[in-house]
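Dear colleagues,

I hope this message finds you well. In preparation for our joint manuscript, I am sending the Signal recognition particle receptor FtsY (Cryptobacterium curtum) sequence together with its predicted structure, so that both groups work from identical material. I would be grateful if you could confirm receipt.
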Amino acid sequence: MFESVKQGMSRTRQMFTERMNVLLDRGPAVDEEFWEGLEEALILADVGAPAALDIVEALRVEATRHALPDAYAVMDALADQIASSFTTEGQGLFEENPVLVLFVGINGAGKTTTVGKIAAHSKAHGRSVLLGSADTFRAAAIEQLEEWARRSQVEIVERERGSDPASVCYDTIERAEALGSDLVLIDTAGRLHTSDDLMRELQKVVSVVRRRAAMPVRTVLVIDATTGQNGLSQARAFDKALDLDGLIVTKLDGTAKGGIALAISHELSLPIVKVGVGEQLDDLQEFDAHDFAAALIGAEAVYETDGEARDSATENLASSNLVSQAPSEPEPEPEPEPERVTQAAESFATAAPDTTYAEEPKPQEGRFRRLFKWRGRKREDDAR
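The corresponding structure tokens are as follows:
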């Protein structure tokens, strides 16, 4: 899963790592220039000024509290700090049973496709799914959702084009109660967040659903990541009008502005429930804050979970833009027997001066420190 997110975030990661490479080329000093450069790199990744400022300030405190010696040690802590900036409460709303989910957003964000993918995935995992096609305005919207229903082998409630979307939602709820469906997904028409009239119409639809449904109702905003900071404006307007429960961020694979996911979650305290990193069915994935943070900054997904190490990606130094010319990290040699430790050390000391040895990273060191040690070794080798 991490590899898919990592690949999908390649454009965003490239922009961030290019900025950080320039910043770190000047040296490892943790000074005001470093902090300003880090904040600027985060903002340019569309993380947003408020989130970037909070992340940098938290890292400043951590650097002082733990006496972090250099910029590389700060970078070790960056992924965890980014991950902790996301809102996670309410992230499992699709796991509720039963639950009705309304999908809202502007035109072209990918709502209908997202509904279809979730329906197919949920049906494959044993859920009783019902679709409602309340997008009665867009040409071919009903037909598109019909095709997803056919592929997923789930029932769909629909009316002719131009019908009142609130009535479609009402019919969907009645049908769900008759069938005993435990997951109801309703697609709504795209609404321009700057149009008061359209937003009032959507408020009516959501209000009808919340009053009529006996099961929990969740309203999820689908955001196109390519819109960048405009996506934050959309989220503010929709949240103000509808009191959103979560976000789905699509098209992360087509933009260098993937940090917008953090900007919205951080400012509005909304959980991101899924992210889209491609067109295939499996490319709509559960959101994992640590994986997203690692993919954003070019680190590996190696973290501590419940006291045990969790490694969700193959160790591959050459895959990171931060060390694009570095050699692959060698497999660690078997630990020598105790009586041979001294002999091995003497052998190492008497080796030819031009022999290159790959140091095995110390267990307590983070991924970034390991990466930059290789980078430094590469420079030393080039200088010889």
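For the figure legend, we might mention the following. The chain has two domains: 1-85, 99-288. Residues 377 and 383 are 10 Å apart (CA to CA).

With kind regards,
E.M.
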